Amino acid sequence: MYAIITISIVAIIVLFFGAIQKKKPLLPIVYVGLILAFGLNLLGWNQSVHYYNEMYIADNFSIAFNGVLIFTTLLVFIFAPVYYKPVKRPLEDIYALILFALVGSLIMTGFGNLLMLFVGIETMSLSLYILAGSKKFDPNSNEAAMKYFLTGSFASGFLLFGIALLYGACGSMNLEEIKQYLILHQHATSGMLNIGLLLVVIGMTFKIGAAPFHFWAPDVYAGSPTLITTFMATVGKVAAIAAFFRLMNSSFAEIESSWKITLTVFAIATILIGNLSAFNQDNVKRMFAYSGIAHAGYMLIAIIALKQQAAGVLLLYSISYTIATITAFAVLILVREETGTFSIKAFNGLAKHNPIEAFAMAIAMFSLAGIPPLVGFAAKYNLFISAIEQGNLPLVIVAIIGSMISLYYYIRPVVAMYINAPSATSAIDSSSNYKKQIFLAAFLMIILGIIPGMIINLI
Amino acid sequence: MILVLLLILPLLASLLLFTGKLGKHSKNFALVASLVVFAISLVAGYAFTFAHDKILTLDLNLKELLDVDIILKIDVVSLVMVMLTTLLVPIIIASTDKKENRTPNFYALIMLMQMALIGVFISSEMILFYIFWELALIPIFFITALWGGENKKKISVKFLIYTVVGSFVMLIGILYLYTLTPAPHSFSFESFFQLKLPYSVQVPVFLAFFLAFAIKIPLFPFHSWQAETYNASPVQGSMLLAGIMLKMGLYGIIRFILPLCPDVVAGGSLIFLPLILFGVIYGATIAITQPNLKKLIAFASLSHVGLIALGLLSNNHYGIEGGILQLFSHGVNVVGFFLCYYMIVKRTNTDKISDLGGIASVAPKFATIFLIIVLANISLPLTNSFVGEFLILLGLFQANKILAIIAGLTIILGAVYILKMYQKVMYGERSAATEKFTDLTFSEMLVFLPIIAMIFLVGIFPSFILQLLEGAVK
Q1: Do A236 and A318 fall within a single domain?
Q2: Residue A343's pLDDT is what?
Q3: ipTM score of complex
């Protein structure tokens, strides 16, 4: 809770400094504020406090995910100066919107009431709609914002309608009370409840960008400014999946038979569509959009294999996915700065003049593909185990086939960097500062791959 | 403790090399490190022979932290494989010529590879095994991709994807078996071996594992990556691949397929044995017509490893003992063969057999060594492969007489392609390429020494390994 308040205040301060045209203090304020929020967030560990009539619950689940989200945002901000180097104005609006989106996502992980879920999602989405279009004079960015807004608000409508129906059926929007209602009526659920649940599931599926409601993702990811895409692909996705998990785990676990099949079909479709569409993308940014879809499918497995341990596995998967994605995007931003293109050819020969960046990118790719001993493998195999323990072998087989396909497109940047001859462009000029952060991320992927048990048993 | 050292030392050496601080001394450092690892494996072997139940185990109990139980175990089969690895890696490192100017990363990757290979052979927990199994792929991929020859990009990617697809299928098998273990589920080998699988379960498990191993070994019809990859890889990469890495697949057959799917192995022999046998004959036949030396070695190797797989799957103890022994011998021989190839290419810059000739007249030492290695490759009595291949054929004969007779043909075919090649390369008129051929230097002889020693040692006194194996196989 304190983290949410801190970040909101920081966002307002940032806006204020922007209003008086001060550029220098903006980023330091953001850094300090995020670090402070990170610390405050951790203070609540093991206390499980409820706020405002169980509107918001700060339990270990939400604290762990909030930690990931805040840390990820911090990383995004660390790469902001590189990305916005040519821009002279203070950019307070963009920073503040990112922070507001973060606030929304923090609410999403810890909601205790369906209304809060909606508030959180809308806070995040509205900020993201604007951010997607923040490159005002770029038609692609405009297109992305418009597409995202139209489809997103449609999905929000579904979600809200579903929540209303659930309220009608259960007489409450409190997660705990819905659960109590379902325990009493689990064999005689009304049609209203089922339809409401289905609508909510559709809304959430849209937000995590899973098939069959994924069509917005590629265009929005590819059109948005890359830094914003990074934020969307990591914070946006992880917050939505955590919220989805929380919703299903705390309220609807009793009637899992009624939604499990639907979600299994969604997960299978997502994994296959995401991986197959990414297969031959020459635009790396677009490739990551599709790979993000595929990863949403893997994360759905954690929801399908609902068990207490699955929360830890989901956390591990989120961490592995975010670190790898951020690293990859950071390198992508640097490469794009130099070559002006997102094409895979821009990576040619990167290893020759920028070995650290190339190494980090290679590690990120192998981690996303799930090659041991990186964290991506640990996350994937734990996910598969939790699914297979529930007897869901076909789903796991599809997921593994998806991983096989994904290896091909993840290996392409690696091949380009290490084997292809350098193209005419010069080396990326990245200050040693970023080298360290990028290297740190790669290091984290290896270390976490060795000790994943620590994270799984965390919550 | 020894077991942990076997893993940690190569890893540390590799990390140190990756930093690039060692510069010019990288090769020497890697050589010393790998020799130390060899010494440790000798200590492990010594400790093993005096351990009362002939098994060294270590369970680190780190499940909470690592999410994977670190269970390491050395039994006879593991010991043979570890010995092979630690013996060959120093040879491979020493063989690298100074003129090639390899960067420190090259040696770092070799050391990393050694760590992964040892890990595969001594881990006794499925996920740990799988991690090492996959990890071994990454260094060899980069060795081929960075220092390889023509078409290295296409070939290394094909190789990577081919093998990873195989291992993913194995992963499905592993996860499936995991669900069958009694609760609380466990990934340890022990709990897997205690499963008494019904036949209907054994079949899919067999298929899942066998596909992964067949790609790795490689067995016909999954061999198409092999000759290309050998050809494109730098010679050290080919040695690692042919000498050690392919043995991972055969090791997998011994470790998993034989204990987990005994009924399939016993009942299905007429389905897959002929297929493997076809690959054996096919490899040997193709080898006869190969115009270039490296491809000849590749196809010869395809034929030899297929024969080992036949022995292992022949479902009787002669075949299995012979197979294990031949695993070791083939590793030594093929590395020796590649070394000879390397000596020739280094001096003449060509490996086309038709461009070579008359080397024996200028380089008698090399001719002798090459002859020994070549004869070991066609399993002449008193060399190491004779014992192994004899036992394999004996085992096969008990399983199925017709198959054994056909398999015996490979020895004849082997003699054809090997002796034909040797005659063309070493005798006859000297060609332009071999005009200035110089004999081996002292340090080059030194590299050959352990190989020649092993050829005769195992060839003349096979009993000390066979006695150990006998107990284990039963």
Answers
A1: no
A2: 87
A3: 0.82
